[in-house]
Amino acid sequence: MEAMTNATIARVTDRIRQRSEGPRGAYLERMRAAVAMGPARAHLACGNQAHAYAAMGAEKPLLAEGRAPNIGIVTAYNDMLSAHQPYETFPARIKAALAGVGATAQVAGGVPAMCDGVTQGQTGMELSLFSRDVIALAAGVALSHNCFDAALYLGICDKIVPGLVIAAATFGHIPAVFVPAGPMTSGLPNDEKARVRNDYAAGKVGRDALMAAEMASYHGPGTCTFYGTANSNQMLMEIMGLHLPGASFVNPNTPLRDALTERAARRAAEITHLGNDFRPVGEILDERAFVNGIVGLMATGGSTNLVLHLPAMARAAGVMLDLEDFDEISSVVPLLAKVYPNGLADVNHFHAAGGMAFLIRELLGAGLLHADAKTVAGDGLAAYTREPKLINGHLSWVAGAEDSLNDKILRPSVAPFQPQGGLRQLNGNLGRGVIKISAVAPEYHVIEAPVRVFHDQEEVKAAFKRDEFTTDTVVVVRFQGPQANGMPELHSLTPILSVLQGRGLRVALVTDGRMSGASGKVPAAIHVSPEAATGGPIAKLIDGDVLRLDAEAGTLTCLTPGFADRAPVVADLSHNAHGIGRELFAAFRRSVGPATEGAAVVV
């Protein structure tokens, strides 16, 4: 099953290790010093402990003795996010499971969790990326009481998991287990949903048809079933060893999901300093774990948002990632999964076809994963080739599928959908960026055309309604970076660009902003850095400049002579400063780092 590590994977990992030597060494030294102090509650004064346990009823004596593990629950529960609504009942289930093994749990705190599906194309989206840093801060406050021997993190969606990982790494001296809630059951097929969206954008159907399609797609508790950032997060947590094996894509409110939640709680107790298998998460989150995560991202055609999140997550653990790492790993990792928007299937179909156990088995067999990486389940990834089953009411792990049960969704490494992953680094006189091409047809991998420059996605939509796009065009949407307006996703442009492509035009998007995990079939050069708000080259473009986006060569170049000699445009960004909470995030916009380093504030 396992093979010698691929030479490129080994080389990239060594480069990351060398690049990270100083920060990682300092991080581990801090974590070991914290571990050496012993279980946290032993150092709390009686008054401190009395406050912490005042509401715990019959469990007070056990907590005061300090001999049994006390697990902190950090929850992103709210019932606006369908993915997080099932978490409402998790704390009680976790506490009951731990009581059965003589341990305790407390809800340490809650973290905010916003839904990008609600804010897509709306002003609130300008807070979305920064919510990751707020989540990390809120989780840090929750754990600052220093009463916990391990933490259970309840979160799924776009910024929530990365923010929780940043917090987990910061408190890396204690173990961490991430507890998913699973995807909603399949609703309206994703290709039908996309067809209705495109028809609405083209004026062929009305809002009533669009609303009906959307409600049939997003119809119940659980994660949205397309392979966007939320489900990419779940893949990531499993392949990085922070989930229990096979936990990612089991539907909510099922006996198997409940059993996995209970087992996650008990496993958290087993791996504390008080148990026999101490596994602080700071040791799990090393360069091998992050390389494994990038490999999984490439093998599944996952969300471009993770190109922002992974460097920020890694930096919190002293591991320094660069775009070149993503690019080189992508060059040797085959695309093994086709899940919408890269295919017609949803994540439930992916899971049924063999899911994570099959994927990890294939990647291990091809030498593309670090098989010896530490996980919450044990040493090495072999356990993650097994899948959970309820057998006679008992949770067991059995061998996962050795063959794909649907090769239109999931394929072996010897017969992939594509020989390389779906992500490319872009370099050129416009700066650095990335492009996801796993869903882009080869004939659109190179686009050379005049640009139309916009400073707002609404301007693009207005131009489309005026039928102004009649020739091949590179649509440039700038001043969408983290310092300009918080780097909102521009996913609402996808239907418009798809319609133009469907009319036979060669179109592309270039932006210093984000798209999303559903970036689709139109080539999009995103995260262009330096951003326009800092005077980056993208701020020098004018209408009519000829731009060449070459995903094969990995270049993004303005071909117009004299382009580099122009002064960058300075935009009035005052309208981004107020409304829907934006005024609260002025300090974030001022201090945020570049997209190439994760567009982070707190790390």
Polypeptide structure, described:
The chain has helices at 7-19, 21-36, 46-53, 60-65, 90-99, 116-119, 128-143, 160-170, 190-201, 207-217, 229-239, 255-270, 281-284, 287-300, 305-316, 323-332, 347-352, 355-365, 457-465, 482-485, 494-502, 586-591, and strands spanning 70-75, 104-110, 150-154, 176-178, 386-391, 394-399, 423-428, 431-436, 446-454, 473-477, 507-511, 524-529, 546-550, 555-558. By secondary structure, it is of the alpha/beta class. An eight-stranded mixed beta sheet has the order 7-8-12-11-10-9-13-14. Strands 2-1-3-4 form a four-stranded parallel beta sheet. The longest helix is centred in the first third of the chain and has 16 residues, at 21-36. The relative contact order is 0.12.
Number of strands: 14
Q: What is the residue-averaged pLDDT?
A: 94
* H/I helix tally: 22
Strand content is: 5-15%
Key attributes of the depicted protein:
603 residues; eight-stranded mixed beta sheet; 14 strands; four-stranded parallel beta sheet; alpha/beta
How is the topology of this model organized?
Blueprint: H1 7-19, H2 21-36, H3 46-53, H4 60-65, E1 70-75, H5 90-99, E2 104-110, H6 116-119, H7 128-143, E3 150-154, H8 160-170, E4 176-178, H9 190-201, H10 207-217, H11 229-239, H12 255-270, H13 281-284, H14 287-300, H15 305-316, H16 323-332, H17 347-352, H18 355-365, E5 386-391, E6 394-399, E7 423-428, E8 431-436, E9 446-454, H19 457-465, E10 473-477, H20 482-485, H21 494-502, E11 507-511, E12 524-529, E13 546-550, E14 555-558, H22 586-591
Parallel strand pairs: 1-2, 1-3, 3-4, 9-10, 10-11, 11-12
Antiparallel strand pairs: 5-6, 7-8, 8-12, 9-13, 13-14
